[in-house]
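Good morning C.,

I know you're traveling, so I'll keep this short. The sequence:
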Amino acid sequence: MITRLSDLEAKFHNPKAEVVYDILAFRGGVQLYSRLAGLYEAASGTDGAPTQGVRELFAEQRKELDSRDTDLKKLLDDDLGTLNAMAKKLDLPTVILGGGS
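The tokens, ready to paste straight into the viewer:
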């Protein structure tokens, strides 16, 4: 479970990065969070409407975000449920993952 969560986390951002330039220096590079942040800056840093290129890039990144969200929901609904069912059988505490909105 920890490995699967870590793998999913690494698809959102580079967890090894401590400062901005680490995003480019470390293996894994720029992940979805950093790309969405850059896109947000490009779209919000102007008085005009977003360009066609920005809209297309957003559509691509939105698909990727939706896919990651689906992966997370599956992990929480299926894998975490299985883990907690096993923990209950062994009379161990259940695992609760926090975060989200």
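Safe travels,
E.
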